[in-house]
Amino acid sequence: MARPASPPYTLGKITLTAHPTKVGMVQARGYYRDGNNARKEVTAPGKTEAGAKSALARKVNALRDTHQGGDTVLRQDTKMPAAAAVWLDWKSREDKSPNTMRDYRGYVERSINVGALANLTVVQANDVARIESWLTTIADERGETAARQSRKVLSGILGLAERRGAIPASVMHRAKTPKAKPGSTGDRKCTDSECDYDCGKRHLDTRRAFTQAEAAAVLDVADSTKADLGDLAHFLFGTGVRISEALHCTSWDDVNLDAQTVRVRGTKTKHANRTLGLSDDLTERLRERAANYGTTGLVFGVTYFTSKLGAPRDRNNVSKALRRAFATADVKWAGTHTFRRTVATWMDDAGHSLASIANQLGHSDTNVTAKYLGRQDTATHAAAVMVLPSRPSTTRLRVVSGG
Q: pTM of the full predicted structure?
């Protein structure tokens, strides 16, 4: 019967010899297995044999104390920036989109590698009070969205540290994400009823959708701008995709004008990858766009510079141009996500099921769609089996299949 293995960091047989370089000293030599079951050699000097043995034992104990959890890459004493780098490498192996990885790297650089957590180990950072204080600072300085996304990144890092054994358990489920303090730099909302909309704050109404008249006004303004907004606005109204999906995830290879479909390569979950139908009008617009700018690269890529046709456009610049169009159309409360909410609302008004709306938007859960539509009650699955009375359609949306 094989002898049971010794616990990690337990010294085996110790040999004692004269020290090779220190005259009159004794050298103790032994072997132990570390936390990863790797056999390691260790030596220590001493004036006597007993002293050398004691020094060897202290050395092994010190090695054990500095490696109480984790692996050779991510341990309990790993600093947060290094842990974040390990996490980014792990996420890059999950077939994430380039846009998602770019966002992750940005939040690591702005939130993890600088600020209150930058000099902490994963064990020290895994503290509810520290995390909530860190999130409060981000919310007040950079806004609630930055705080939520930073929390998501930190949750991923600590979750990986937990799986690797570097920390006993992540405390992120106990940490709350605060809102920005009213009036702080991160408070992006303006509550002044007399505001002239030049205060630099956001005036978004995230619960509101465009009316038919407002939608027509926005499209008219977008068609008249020089920022190439017309086709994009019609596409957002006709599909309900996220602006990031339209700008950076929809190439001409994804468009089938003959079948009147577009393959949307979503930016969030696997359900965001979906095939959507195109109306006759939207198909014709895309056909004209292809004739004017070619079918290389992204559908809504650069058009102003012929040498960069189809290259990615800057999302911030497009968003600014859309906000100017909203102001001209007298819908200053609207944001880029209002297109998406409008599609969901109009489909709901036309009697489409939650499942159908969820497929259109790329939601993985119909409960998310229900909350998106402002429903307070829990979503049910009745709409998927009930035959509703036919009603005049107010949209031209045609869902082909879900991703």
A: 0.56
